[in-house]
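Can anyone check this?
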Amino acid sequence: MPPFSLKKLTWLAYGVALAAIVLDQLTKWIVLHLLNMQLGQTIEISPIFDLTFTLNTGVSFGMFSGGEARWVLTGFSLIVAGVMAWWALRAPRRLFAVALGLVIGGALGNVIDRIQIGAVVDFLDFSGLGFPWIFNIADSAISVGVGLLILDSFLSERRTEPVGSEAQTE
């Protein structure tokens, strides 16, 4: 056996991360180059969903916008992705590995934008549902990944709890 080999769950996490990055960057390329959208332009798709091209120089919900935090946010995202990639080396469950992969891929998808253009390309607009923020595939991957990490923690707690270990009250 080689001195360093990755477990199947680690490969699963890294594969999910790669898929998230590719899908994120492909959809952003479509918005920028195939549809040739201009900043602020909206393409109406349905009563609840549109494509609206925006650039986010901050983080979620417009925090730290203005561009001055570009490299700090890039560095932070790289650290988060690195920690998650290291954590994936020890992934004990499939759901956990998928969740880590989504967070890694989402973080790196947005890092690519920050490095290349100084801001994150956002375009998914569900304002027809009353959702006020415009986001992208990477943001979705991060949100779903965090949700799955929380779900995995609940499910793993239930699996490790001994049968009949209900708290006794006096």
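Reply from J.R.: I decoded it. Residues 8-159 form one domain.
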